[in-house]
Amino acid sequence: MEYNWNGEGFTDSDAYSVGSDFTDSLSLQVRATDSDGNQYTITPEALNFIWQAEEIDQSDVYLKGQKGAIVEMFGWPHEDIKQECEYLA
User: Fold this and answer.
1) What 3 state SS string does 14-70 have?
2) Which of 2, 23, 62, 85 holds its CA 20 to 30 A away from the CA of 17?
3) Dihedral sign, CA of 71, 75, 76, 78?
4) Is residue 56 part of a domain?
5) 58 part of a folded domain
6) At 89, is the secondary structure helix, strand, or coil?
């Protein structure tokens, strides 16, 4: 597997770091080569980060948290649920 992060060229590193000052979408291409030498490349949709989201103009009814929300995490590993709940809080 090879990864091309933001058009910087293919590398074997499957990790890429950005800081909160990153303002662009993060692009990625993933390339795999099979045992016969055939190459396959996919390009997932570009990623945006939570700090890049526009502010939502909402009613005062939703101050201090949305009322009546349901989060479904069926089949999630317990550790992932714990992390997601901390994030949602």
Assistant:
1) CCCCCCCCCCCCECEEEEEECCCCCEEEECCCCECCHHHCCCCCCCHHHCCCCCCCC
2) 85
3) positive
4) no
5) no
6) coil
pTM of the predicted structure, to 2 decimals: 0.53
Residue range of the domain that includes 30: 2-51+65-88
Is the separation of the CB atoms in 22 and 46 below 8 Å?
A: no
Both tokens of 67, joined, read 């009322």
Residue 69 lies in a domain: yes
Q: Calculate ∠ Cα 31-37-39, nearest 5°.
A: 25
Measure the CA–CA gap between 28 and 84, rounded to whole angstroms.
24
Contacts 24+ apart (CB under 8 A), 24-29: 28/3, 28/4, 29/3, 29/4
In this structure, what token pair is assigned to residue 73? Answer: 């995490």
